Target: Transposase
Amino acid sequence: MTCKTPCSAAKYGRTYHTHSKDNLRLFPKTSRETNKWKATYKRRTSIERSNKREKKDYHLEAGNHRSTMMWYIRIFGIMMCQNMDAWYMHREEELKFLKNHIFAQTA
Model:
């Protein structure tokens, strides 16, 4: 269907101009080729993984609490679990060595 009073004489029809200030996802202030962008993107994906861990793995949204104090207790517990996971992953080799060393002494 064609328009009786076209806005433009262009063959391809109506166009929409997006300003770079309006859409920061498509036109970020930092160029994507820079190291600053890579560091920012790396941090963002890390945060996304952390949010996924809280919501899916630790069932954050499964709580059916009305009080904010219960939500705080739940999120603090989840943060402690995440901290223990990170600590364990950072020290995994050292803990395995200690475990083997202790079992070797008791045998």
